[in-house]
Amino acid sequence: MDLNLLRTFISVYETGSLTRTAQAMFVTQPSVSHALSRLRRELADDLFVRGGGRMEPTPLAVELYPVFKESVGRIDLAVDSVRSFDPATSTHRFRLALSDLGELGFLPQILKRVSREAPLVEIDVVPMEIELLAEWLTKGSVDAAIASWPIRGAFNSTLLKAEKYVCLLRADYPLSNGAITLEQFAEAGHAIVARTTGHQLPETVMDSLGIVRRATVTVHHFAVLPHIVSECNLVAIAPESMARGWLQKWPLKTAELPFEVPALEVTLHLRTAERESPALAWFQRTVLDALR
Questions:
Q1: What 3-state DSSP class applies to 54?
Q2: Distances in Å between the alpha carbon of 217 and those of 50, 138, 147, 224, 235?
Q3: Count of CB atoms within 10 A of residue 75's CB?
Q4: Which stretches make up the HTH lysR-type domain (predicted)?
Q5: Is the pTM of this model over 0.90?
Q6: Which fold does the domain 165-262 belong to in CATH?
Q7: At what angle do helices 3-15 and 18-25 cross, to 10 degrees?
Q8: 291 Cβ neighbours under 8 A, 6+ residues apart
Q9: For 64-122, what is each residue's pLDDT tens digit?
């Protein structure tokens, strides 16, 4: 039986969702449905039925899950442990979860280091979904991730840097003694970056303080902020190092936030394997060395 069918079965069983399985396996939902249909035909059982807003396993699925889970895990570990890994000749593909800020700030350093040692290795950059990240790392859907929101799980984490958030404003935005007041902040139109990127700290603080902004636009990438802030005279919140980089190219300025936000901590998370994988160990070591 195709191992990918078993992986699909395991994910649907654990998530109770075809959509979340598709996200975890980085495939489309029709692909998950097709795989499930093949399994149903081969095993002559529905395996999962809809109920209570999720996919509920049938008695046969409940019986098969621990067997499939252990078998697939043992196969993966056995293959990884015996497979030789030579960076100079390997064509291995690794998965790295990054936000768009991570792509701008860290990916060039990582690619430079990896390509120098392993010119044929491929890196699949997975867009950040902060609510799924712990699951991805735990299940091995990604090999490493760089996030700015605390993630809990059975994986190793290393703090890369800490910095503050600032207000990003158009260069001619009127300020009082170089500061934006809380009243100005609340009344301004805002370009808001979605929380799924992992930059939730300012949002959490504002929620706790009861600060309500006037959202003009919500985006999913920081990279668009300098353009829309400068062209549309909006206010945005961004990490200081990235904002200061934009000042060199755009008619922008920064100001302190009119409320206190704890420092942003950017952390590298590395998934762990039950048995040593030479390829995974090399990749994680190389990423960490590149960012130190």
A1: strand
A2: 36, 34, 23, 11, 10
A3: 12
A4: 1-58
A5: no
A6: D-Maltodextrin-Binding Protein; domain 2 (3.40.190)
A7: 130
A8: 106, 109, 110, 160, 268
A9: 998 888 888 777 766 665 566 889 998 888 999 998 888 888 999 999 999 999 999 99
Q: Which CATH number, 3.40.50.620, 3.40.50.300, 1.10.10.10, 3.40.190.10, labels domain 3-82?
A: 1.10.10.10
Q: Can you tell me the mean pLDDT for 47-68?
A: 90
Residue 235 DSSP one-character state? B
Q: Which residues sit opposite 239 in a β-bridge?
A: 165
Gap between the Cα atoms of 244 and 23, Å rounded: 34
| C-alpha to C-alpha distance for 3 and 92, rounded to whole angstroms | 19
Q: How far apart are CA 62 and CA 52, in angstroms?
A: 17
pLDDT for 128-153, tens place per residue? Answer: 888 888 888 887 888 999 998 888 88
Distance of alpha carbon 96 from the chain centroid: 8
